[in-house]
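Handout, tutorial session.
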Amino acid sequence: MVSKSLSLAFTMAAVIASPQAAASSLTVPNIFTSGTATSASEMNANFTAVKAAIDDNNTRISSTQSATNSFQGFSSGTSTGGVGLITLGNLCSSSFAGSHVCTTQEFATSSYASATGLSGDAWIQPTYSFVGSSNALDAVSGVAGTTPSFTCRGWTQSASINDKALTVSSVGKFVIQVCSTPRAVACCI
């Protein structure tokens, strides 16, 4: 049982450290063979090597993710919320080349230094931490509401005063507002 667990642990470490994943390399200091005794220090050395490779990969992944989340600003054009996600995305890409509608997570982890067009408020995609049959909670803002009230029923409804979606203000406040009012879109790269 122990040898199967060790085999699985080292196989997982080898996959994590594979060149296809552009991960750091892993050199296992001790190789064990069936029927020979191992020492705690040899096992600990192997686990230390695996931990170091995993920690290095975590640092690489974190720096890559933070480098890719960049809030650009609010789109120059506006739209009601019920026009579809592609239309909202096109408002972003016409204002900021290569951008898309931000999620609340992207917005919260971005730099705001070079953001432009920040006035009023803008549509933003929620990052759900909970979605039930009728209720939802955005993980970043803490705003709670009915499931359809976060995205104008999937960015498809704008006529009814009851249809609402999540917005972010120019100072970073998150509020659920009616879909029928034209707004800018929060754009990220």
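The second record follows below. Compare its token runs with those of the first.
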Amino acid sequence: MAHRSPAPPPPPLAAILCSLAFLAAGCADAPRRGMAASAEYLTAHTNPALREAVTVTAVQGGDSGRSGIPWVSRGDFEKALVDSLHRAGYLAPSAGEVRYALEADVLEATIENSDRPFRYLDTEENVTTTIRYRLMDRERGVTLLDRRIEVPYHAANSTGFLTATRIRAADEGSARESIEALIDELDRLQVREGE
């Protein structure tokens, strides 16, 4: 008579919970939208005085990680800024003898209520990013635009299962809306022809 092997013991509860958490994280995380400006900001009327006449000369600030929590990196932000300006019609074809130079400084990204107890049980995240933009006229040596743009962004639970994912989405959303606000400023900026 054949003997049956004893049934294997059930997996520990911790292993089951970890597996479910990773599965839920993989299923629930929405695709990232990135930081480039959305289509409605890239198809609006381009300021003719600045059309294809701007180059990005410096991007400062930002970081790739803050206490283990993702944050907007300088490289990703610069790429999104350049791409948005290009698609909006402001970026010069080459960085050679371009009249208008744009600088951006990512000063701060603040997570709302980050010091509240049990905040990781929240289902949404709110981040406010502060970015300073300066547009200089190289020929005249004057500053045409100097703005600190502070933009809040709300990332709901549908953005991602993990808190860090929602914070990253809120960071990127805030940076994206900051770039859109900059494009609005460029659209409205009064630059007299021939100056």
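Points raised in discussion: Helices lie at 13-28, 39-42, 74-88, 163-188.
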